[in-house]
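Predict the holo structure. Ligand: flavin mononucleotide.
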Amino acid sequence: MKSLVVYYSRTNITKKLAETIAQKTGGDIEQLISKVNYNGKIGYARAGKHAISQKIIDIEKTEFNPEDYDVVYVGAPVWAGKCATPAISYLKQNEGKFKNLKFFMTAGSSGFESSLKQMEKFSKKPLKTLTLTTKQVKKDDFNIDSFIE
Ligand SMILES: Cc1cc2nc3c(=O)[nH]c(=O)nc-3n(C[C@H](O)[C@H](O)[C@H](O)COP(=O)(O)O)c2cc1C
């Protein structure tokens, strides 16, 4: 099974999870880079606003073609009860190119269900999903074995 891990991470929490998944699956990994500035306090406010309006934004060109993979893992943080806009934008941009999808998300505490539904709406039903809190990722308090099976 050839796999690709694609993720967006603003503060490196989802990144840590993405790297763990890529390491364990032995697959390729790609970080989504937003062309919209979501850094700092102003960026935080912009991120929340864009997430609520489900804005499709410009992202930097990606390196790997999802069509070349049996499974693509897509990861993102929850923003205002929605999926972070760079990940949604990636899914929409690559509509119809995924053989199989798996979604993983991190959040302070809540908003997983609505975010995952939104990701599915912008692509298709994932084989599996994984949700972890920021704290769990920070403390290495997680096990991804069944998720990557
Ligand atoms: C704009 C914004 C909105 C957020 N909204 C939520 C939320 O609705 N629920 C929640 O539990 N965490 C929320 N968070 C926290 C992030 O989901 C959490 O810190 C996540 O682990 C960050 O991942 P990252 O470091 O990969 O960006 C929000 C963070 C940002 C920047």
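The helical segments are 13-25, 40-52, 85-93, 112-121, 134-138, 145-148. Strands lie at 3-7, 28-31, 71-79, 82-83, 101-107, 128-133.
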